Amino acid sequence: MRSKLRRIICGVFVLLLSTSVTVTAGGLYLQEFATPSTGTASAGAQAWAHDASTAFHNPAGMTRIEGNQVMVGAGALITTHEFETSSSTPYGGGNGGDAGGTTPFGSAHMVYGLSDDLKLGVSLTAQSGASMDYNDTWSGRYQCQSVDIIAMALNSSLGYKVNDWLSVAGGISMIYADLELEVAGNRPGNLSDGKATIDGDDTQGTFNLGAMIELSSDTRLGFTYWYETELDFSGDISLSPSGLTTASDTSLVLPQWARASIYHALNKKVALLGSIGWEDWSSLDNITLSANGGTQPLQRNWDDTWHFSAGIHYRISDPWLLQCGIAYDTSPVDAEDRTADMPVDRQIRYAMGALYSWSESLTIGGALEYVDLGDAEISGNSLVGKYDENNMIVASVSFNWQW
Fold first, then answer.
1. What residues does each domain of the chain span?
2. Which pLDDT score is estimated for 108?
3. C-alpha to C-alpha distance for 58 and 62, rounded to whole angstroms
């Protein structure tokens, strides 16, 4: 029995060599948090410091918040992923249908004034996530049949106003992540495909830093840095039709990232916003899968990514603020290393939003964003083709109370 189980686990390792657990667990970090900054495609989010969401975007900006504030936000991610299989793909089975769907998301933020110069912030956000479901018999089934991943972050931070132009902040974040992945196994002869399923979860801590420089009453700069998080997905690997299950550990890293933003008010009606960011995805060279005493590195050839965004605020009247923005993110992976569980190429975001001051204590916001995920060409050994449709629509609302 032990030798049979060892052969099964070795077979699972072989199956998973063609999958991308790392992509689904981290991928590109989400930039949508159901906050008003979604209306500018996140441009200027680290420098605006206008509401309770600055507790997440840049805790140093909390020193600009008067009194106390709470924000809650909710929305939906509507994704479309339709693959076109090339004739050179070695396996038949079709294009897989639309692997996308609708995923709800939300966030909550609080800023509490301990003193005029010291602020406490708490945020709950989704850091990363994916949900994809292809037809079980599609041509890319040996890369992915379905995947569900979510990573939630609970962050607490302190912001301190050093002087009239400088504020600094530090925070501690607890990240919970859960992973489920199904991939088909090509069995020899005329045997039907097998299926390997991985599930696991983990909770880890990390830290973040922030700073804000106020060059004038109309211009400010914001900076944030988040340290990497090492996740160890302890769970199970099961293989069908054998029905065998064994404990497993899948180790991977959510990498460090940094972002800088600017906010500049041209006048009382118009403001310009911009951001530049970096994510250290080149640290994701290998992921380690361990089961039944065996260890297998899963090689990934990812690159660092860069983010660029620009946005505009236009106040048409006292209660109304209109927003728009555009963002560009470079691709983390080349076609020969890209896999079907996260078909991400370069990303272009087009966003618009509005804020309405319902009263002195309540502001309501709404945002709509379209994300072009590129054609995400795949040219691996087991799947060749590109995505005819690969996009995401984001709709969100937010409510901010102050007292």
1. 2-402
2. 96
3. 8
- The neighbouring-strand residues paired with 368 are 352, 395
Please state the pTM of the whole predicted model.
0.88
Bridge partners for 62 per DSSP: none
Are the C-beta atoms of 275 and 45 separated by less than 8 Å? yes
Return left, alpha or beta for 297; rule: phi > 0 is left, psi -120 to 50 is alpha, else beta: beta
Residues contacting 254, CB < 8 A, separation 6+: 25, 26, 29, 127, 128, 151, 175, 177, 228, 229, 231
| Integer CA distances (angstroms), 271 to 20, 52, 220, 239, 360, in order | 42, 20, 12, 56, 22
Q: Residue 48 phi/psi, 5° resolution? A: -65, -55
Tens-place pLDDT, residues 10-51: 444 434 333 333 233 224 578 889 999 999 999 999 999 999
- pLDDT (tens digit, 9 = 90+) per residue, 236-262? 677 677 666 666 667 777 889 999 999
Classified by CATH at the fold level, domain 2-402 comes out as Porin (2.40.160)
Can you tell me which residue has the tokens 């939630």? Answer: 152
